[in-house]
Amino acid sequence: MTSTPTKPAVSTPDRIQRVQRRTLAVLSAAQIVGGVGVAVGLALSSVVVDELSRSTVISGFAGTATVLGAALLALPAAKASGRGGRRAGLSLAYTAALTGCVISVLAISLRTWPLLLVGLVLVGGGSAGSLAARYSATDLSPKDRSARHLSLVVWASTIGSVAGPNLAEPADRIGRSLGMAEKAGPFAFAALAFALAVVIVLVLLRPDPLILARAGTRTEDPGRNRTIRTAWHTLRTTPMARRALVMIAVSHTAMVSVMSMTPVKLHHDGSNLDVIGLVISLHIAGMYVLSPLVGWLADKAGKVPVLVLGSALLLGAAALAGTAGHRVWQVTAALVLLGLGWSCGLVAGSALVTESVPIERRPAVQGLSDLLMNVCGATGTIVAGAIVGLLGYGMLGLMVGIMVALSGLWLTAVWRRTS
């Protein structure tokens, strides 16, 4: 869903500030609504696939499908943003998610799990939109506030992530009362949430922040950009952006690898669902609740120091998780640190990517960043399952710790050499 960029009026600093405040509010609203859609869908996707396929193995493909969808839609959304502005890219991602929810409702009604997996791939567009929204928050930001503005939009995800799963059961009851198949209601509700996100973006995100930021600075026609080629060329010639992208990918891989296997570890240790749910809730709080503080620190102390801090937190999390044994409190502490380390990597890394590349090439590089992040996340879940299955949860902590330590030492060495 693209639109033809129009030349914005000459902007004064006061007008830019007013537009940026409005932009942050609109993006936060879209994050909350879109986050509800993502969380409602994810709350039941693996359960529904398990019921329809009668296979625990196949049920694991539900999470993989949504992560794969987020990766596949990252570049098309970035290309749409490059051509038509942020409204075009965000509305494309959320429209794909809406379509995926409709397909999912149909698949549940027909009781066919392959069609449901197809729908879940498109539902991944909701995650792609959520990731793209954080970059949209930086288009009009002053350089000394880019991380803070980005982190505010990341923080808004907390509301949808917490509220979404709790709405699944009421949505199912309402859906069944309307004649829908069991468990189709939550996906119909998610479709409405994504539809509202599309409306918010298209109607309220005006003027478009990316188009306004490009006014008077465009050196190339974004409509002629080939997203992947542009992104790779920019990364080859921009070492700082390349380093930031690596750290985002490492942080995300470490987080999803440990987080995805922790419920399995706790279940095998005899913990009940209430305990598992509490641990994951505290982990999500670590990911999002302090993100504004992380953004403030990145702007004040520098993006690279916060990336190094994130590596240290992730290393501590891996060490705690790997040596936890049957101690639930230690696993919980590890998951909280894991969320905080991820927050440092995502917020500081994303802000560093943004400020390191020219405005006309940002959507391409940002899209590639999200693509690689999601591919690494999907790979991390698969490899983590194999490690835990063959060698145990402790070995997963060791392997993640080694990965994080090597990347953190590399970044620190490069930073000291170039500073």
From TrEMBL:
The record's section on PROSITE patterns has:
MFS
Instruction: Give start and end of each Major facilitator superfamily (MFS) profile domain.
Output: 23-419
Q: According to Swiss-Prot or TrEMBL, what is its membrane topology?
A: Multi-pass membrane protein
Q: Where are the transmembrane segments?
A: 24-45, 57-78, 90-110, 116-137, 149-167, 187-205, 244-263, 275-297, 304-322, 328-351, 371-390, 396-415
Which UniProt keyword terms apply here? Answer: Membrane, Transmembrane, Transmembrane helix
User: What would be one Pfam family of this protein?
Assistant: MFS_1
Task: Tell me the domain of life.
Answer: Bacteria
Query: Which cell locations does it reside in?
Result: Cell membrane
Query: Which SUPFAM superfamilies does this one have?
Result: MFS general substrate transporter (SSF103473)
Protein name, please?
MFS transporter
Specify the taxonomic lineage.
Bacteria, Bacillati, Actinomycetota, Actinomycetes, Streptosporangiales
